[in-house]
Write a structure and sequence with these properties.
binds adenosine-5'-diphosphate; 28% helix; 11 helices; 16 strands; binds magnesium ion; globular; alpha+beta
Amino acid sequence: MSDDEPDPTRPGARRPRVAVVFGGRSAEHAISCITAASVLASIDRSAYDVVPVGITTDGRWVLGVDDPGRLQITDGRLPQVDPSGAEVILSTRGGTRDLTILEPGEQPRALGEVDVVLPLLHGPYGEDGSIQGMLELSAVPYVGSGIFASAACMDKHYMKVLLAGHGLPVGAYTVIRPGELAADPGAVRESVASLGYPVFVKPARAGSSYGVSRVDDPDELDAAVAHAEQFDPKVLVEAMVVGRELECAVLGGLDGEPQASVVGEVVVSGDHAFYDFDAKYLNESDLELVIPADVPADVDDRVRNLALEAFHVLGCEGLARVDFFYTETGSVVVNEINTMPGFTPRSMYPALWAASGMDYPALVDRLLRLALARPTGLR
Ligand SMILES: Nc1ncnc2c1ncn2[C@@H]1O[C@H](COP(=O)(O)OP(=O)(O)O)[C@@H](O)[C@H]1O
Ligand SMILES: [Mg+2]
């Protein structure tokens, strides 16, 4: 750490105040709450002051309750931000980092300055550059990628365009733009058929497997597109890649050099056609994270190097999880990059770092230090 970097452990220094922002308007609201529960439970309170800020499903910012227990899955029920909390706003004027509380019938009240925001949001309005844009306007440092990388990694179409443009391997795909299937069904069907069935149909900008279907028969295509369109009017159809799913975690370094974790493998058993929402979050016994993945050393090397290259090419900052398919013929292709990956202690991203020698609290601390050291704007 250099002298001018904030040191939350220095005696006498005011502890940096972290706004942990979670929930949000996307379909992944609940997953974000679960992630926030883990972070709130393990963030070092002797080093940081913590202000939990929930975003309700309709987009209001409310002061959250600092009680991780309320944000977990209980009896199969997904958690959500309690909309009854006092409304808070962060000025987008820049120059002031005050959070202000607005309560009905009362004068706005300053809650104090925020030094850094930890946007634990998944999906649109959170992981896609929207909140990053707002925080840039507010001039408050934040954890993770900036506007461009967030938006580029959220959109599975442009992510592939950028990766392929830099020579990184991605699978074959076609894009169905809003209204295109209705306007020219013949052309769309032909372009999908040229990929060869089965295909995967998915919303361009979503996550947690929401809206993703495997389609084996051309007759099922319309229904799968309609399902994906519930999440995003822009739909991607991909050739199915037959292979194992490998994931690698990338973390920014305090010296500026990002590092790649060990490689992990996702193994799904039971009655799942693929790594779907239930396998990810609800049927835990059907999911095994194998860390480190049992793959040949050269594949391990390739995955880690590709993860770092993908992080670099897309201009990511702070953290990202890069997901791959490893095929029976030995090729490795990038499936997607998540700029705010699932972050519970059981999630792949922290598990990969734990296996690489960095435990969960140290990981959160590293992310906050990276963010505090990085100003907003075009520096
Ligand atoms: N082209 C593909 N070939 C094979 N399986 C796929 C393909 N695309 C997606 N899948 C399966 O669907 C899952 C979710 O798709 P993904 O693109 O990773 O979306 P999300 O962002 O929702 O995680 C993957 O983890 C994988 O199991
Ligand atoms: Mg995925």
